[in-house]
Amino acid sequence: MINQAQLTAEEVKSIQASFLNKVYLWMGLALTVTGIVAMRVADSGAFMSMFNGTGSKAPFFILIAIELGLVVWLSARIDKMSSGFATALFILYSALNGVTLSVLFYVYTSASIASTFFITAGTFAATSAYGYLTKKDLSSMGGFLMMALIGLIIASLVNIFLASSALYWLISYVGVGIFIGLTAYDTQKIKKMSLELTLDSEAGKKGAVMGALALYLDFINMFIFLLRIFGDRR
Which residues is 233 bridged to in the sheet? Predict the structure, then answer.
């Protein structure tokens, strides 16, 4: 653990910037892996057959379950893993997520996916910058945002059966708001964590991976909800 009392203001800023840069590096790598895998799978057409009625949808839901299992396992067992293994699981998760997200190329036009990605990138960058630079303590937002997220998941499940257009749009806009808030909250949380860990230590490396996973999930979910709003369907 870093002794903050012995650090100058400039040293604190340098440590925080170095840690966040490592987090963004892993996040960017994961997003790149997801994007490449999604495009390759979509181009192959092999996985798309399950969405056009010519094949079983079971593999898709199995992949979703595996992805959720990986995130839960990584989050729960991170202290027991080596940093290398944790990193490998994160990259594996991003690749599997690319497979499942390839369905977006079947539902939406490539042009709208690309434009929405840039909208998401800009929104994420501005929000993460706010979380990093603001002097306001965002800790109190965490509990509220998690409760809101649980409510959003429940509403999404209910709307599978209701198929309400009004609820669909409400969920989409609320979802964007929730993940904008989580991006700022998680960024500030990671910034604070940077002063509790030594970046080159095992704990520091694993902390950077977990921070990257949190921001990666914020970005991906923000992108999906924005795509529901701005995406042009085929």
Answer: 108
Three-state SS for 45? coil
Q: Which of 60-64, 128-132, 214-218, 219-223 has the lowest mean pLDDT?
A: 60-64
Report the run of H or E that residue 137 belongs to, with start and end.
none
Distance CA 156, CA 67 (A): 19
Give SS3 for 47. Answer: coil
Cβ neighbours around 73 below 10 Å, total: 13
Cβ neighbours of residue 95 under 8 Å, at least 6 residues apart? 33, 34, 37
Six-digit token pair at 223?
A: 């992108």
Q: Which of 57-66, 172-181, 197-206 is the most confident on average?
A: 172-181
Count how many domains the chain has: 1
Residues 6 or more apart in contact with residue 2 via CB below 8 angstroms = 15, 195, 196, 197, 198
- Sequence-ordered list of residues with C-beta below 8 angstroms from that of 110, at least 6 positions apart, any chain: none
HEC readout, 63-132: HHHHHHHHHHHHHHHHHHCCHHHHHHHHHHHHHHHHHHHCCHHHHECHHHHHHHHHHHHHHHHHHHHHHH
- Written as one letter, the residue type at 85 is F
Task: Tell me what the mean pLDDT of segment 67-87 comes to.
Answer: 91
Which amino acid, 46?
A
Which 8-state DSSP code applies to residue 231? P
Tokens of 16: 């925080």
CA separation for the pair 89, 81 (Å, rounded):
10
Which residues are 108's β-sheet partners?
A: 233
Segments forming the whole domain that contains residue 111: 4-230
Identify the CA nearest to 69 among candidates 96, 87, 34, 42: 96
